[in-house]
UniProtKB/TrEMBL annotation:
One GO BP: cell adhesion involved in single-species biofilm formation
GO cellular component, one term: plasma membrane
Residue ranges annotated for the PAC domain, each copy included: 278-333
Domain GGDEF: 382-514
Source organism superkingdom: Bacteria
Chain coiled-coil ranges: 321-358
Originating organism: Paractinoplanes rishiriensis
Transmembrane residue ranges: 6-25, 32-57, 63-87, 99-123, 143-165, 177-199
Protein name per Swiss-Prot or TrEMBL: GGDEF domain-containing protein
SMART domains: GGDEF, PAS
Statement: the UniProt record of this protein carries the keyword Coiled coil: yes
Keyword hit for ATP-binding: no
Length: 518
């Protein structure tokens, strides 16, 4: 009678936990806890099935093999129970690689031992018969006792951790979670205690206690989770700031959250039954999630299928982007204005830099620019020639026609000089009525020839000052070098040659070191 009752208990426990494990496995996408519970439930179902087979077999060899297999499963169940308990009681707990390795050591060792003849003898040292009950009983070996000891340490340690978490809990809900976990540990212990008081001759009833723990897990844990999930989903649905619409397979709205009603400016009765395409041109795809933007409303449209893959409709999540887009556009406008301002500042800086290097009256490079250019040419060891030019009788022009007349004479001369030189040459206003022309790669004699031609062109031209045609002439001095390493010396030589031209009667071109007069 006892054997029959135990067989029924093992069978019911195996079938029940297997069904619960299958159900939990189908729910695995909802929460990671369902995966762990399904794994533990499946292992407990196998353990109860092995206990049933041990009860029914009469062959010592087969019986020993079943006991060995069950001994391998026991540390697996214990590791799963620890993970399940900590996941449920401590939401911050995560299975680390180190913890997984430690939990997996005992199952791996037992599995390896079960594959070796000597190892199986360490797990089951002997098998004896109980004639009055018609069953076989195994005598555990040293490896079995070691495995049981490790399991007890593991379970007690995790139970202590849960108890400590309960003591430190700051909310009643957290304490209730810890209480449920502790009861899960307690159930197999109570069943084992009851079994020890019955005439079972050493039969292990802990698998039945583990199955009862899984029943409690489903009633107290998963049942509460299942009740909480709809409430949580409903709360999220009602309070989320995004607009959420639920549509049937025909595209008609069957539900809308408060945010959607506010966005649409309609009541729930007005929205229910409304086709979602009436909100705008929407592309409803039954297979893939899409993201679409209508004016300033961003919609994420997700097709919904049940567990069998049957299409149920769509969930549309809308977000009003009007304000954020306005901020973005304003930021883009501000950024554009800032870029324009920066460009303007750069242009102004460039103009200022250019003005600092240009003569305001003639537009020619000024003395500063000239000296920078000569310094660069000297550093390059370039062959250059230069001419210093001074307008003749400039004071008389100023006296006769005023400063405006003098300025006109300077501008006229500057324009003629700038128009006559090459791109590689440089014409600069040196100061007052003096100009400097720099020729690169030109001998002093060639430079003299070009400057003298310019002198003749200037003398042949006239400008109108005070209603009169006035001729402006110039005196020039030319110097040169094969490698410009002393720009001050070149300027001094050209200046001396210019004064020599003045001394010889003006309107002349003088080459430094030679008596050459134009």
């Amino acid at each position: 009678m006892v054997v029959t009752l135990l067989a029924v208990a093992y069978g019911v426990a195996a079938a029940g936990t297997a069904v619960m494990a299958a159900v939990d496995w189908r729910r695995r996408q909802r929460s990671a806890a369902f995966r762990v519970i399904a794994f533990v439930g499946g292992a407990i179902a196998v353990s109860n099935l092995l206990s049933l087979c041990q009860l029914l077999t009469g062959a010592p060899g087969a019986f020993a093999g079943l006991v060995v297999a069950q001994t391998v499963i026991l540390p697996v169940i214990s590791a799963g129970v620890v993970c399940m308990s900590l996941v449920h009681s401590d939401r911050g707990w995560r299975l680390s690689h180190r913890a997984a390795a430690l939990l997996g050591v005992t199952p791996v060792v037992m599995a390896v031992a079960a594959c070796l003849p000597a190892g199986r003898e360490l797990i089951v040292s002997a098998v004896r018969s109980v004639p009055e009950m018609g069953i076989l009983i195994a005598t555990p070996g040293p490896l079995s006792w070691a495995c049981v000891g490790i399991i007890q340490v593991l379970l007690v340690g995790s139970a202590i951790r849960v108890f400590v978490l309960r003591r430190r809990a700051t909310s009643a809900e957290q304490r209730r979670l810890c209480n449920r976990v502790l009861i899960t540990y307690l159930i197999p212990m109570v069943v084992a205690f009851i079994g020890s008081a019955l005439p079972l001759h050493g039969l292990d009833v802990i698998p039945i206690g583990q199955a009862l723990s899984m029943v409690y897990v489903h009633v107290a844990w998963i049942g509460r989770m299942s009740r909480q999930m709809p409430v949580a989903h409903r709360t999220i649905f009602s309070t989320i700031s995004d607009a959420v619409l639920v549509a049937d397979p025909d595209g008609h709205i069957i539900e809308a959250n408060p945010a959607a009603l506010v966005l649409l400016g309609r009541t729930a009765d007005d929205v229910t039954g409304l086709g979602v395409t009436e909100l705008g041109e929407l592309d409803l795809d039954r297979r893939h999630a899409t993201e679409q933007t209508l004016v300033d409303l961003h919609l994420q449209i997700n097709p919904v299928h049940d567990g069998r893959g049957i299409f149920l409709g769509w969930v549309l999540v809308g977000r009003d982007l009007t304000e954020s887009n306005q901020r973005r556009r304003k930021a883009e406008e501000d950024a554009g204005q800032l870029r324009e301002q920066l460009e303007t500042i750069k242009l102004l800086q460039a103009n200022l830099a250019e003005q600092a290097r240009r003569d305001a009256l003639t537009g020619l490079p000024n003395r500063r620019h000239l000296m920078e250019r000569l310094t660069t040419l000297a550093a390059e060891r370039a062959v250059i020639s230069l001419a210093v030019i001074d307008l003749d009788h400039f004071k008389s022009i100023n006296d006769a026609y005023g400063h405006a007349g003098g300025d006109a004479a300077l501008v006229h001369t500057a324009q003629m000089l700038a128009a006559a030189v090459r791109d590689d040459d440089l014409v600069a206003r040196y100061g007052g009525e003096e100009f400097v022309v720099v020729f690169r790669g030109v001998t002093p004699e060639t430079a003299w020839s070009r400057i003298d031609a310019l002198r003749e062109q200037l003398a042949a031209s006239t400008i109108e000052l005070g209603g009169e045609a006035v001729t402006v002439t110039m005196s020039a001095g030319v110097s040169g070098t094969s490698a410009a390493d002393d720009v001050d010396g070149l300027l001094r030589q050209a200046d001396e040659a210019m004064y020599e031209a003045k001394h010889r009667g003006r309107n002349r071109t003088q080459l430094h070191g030679l008596t050459v007069v134009g």
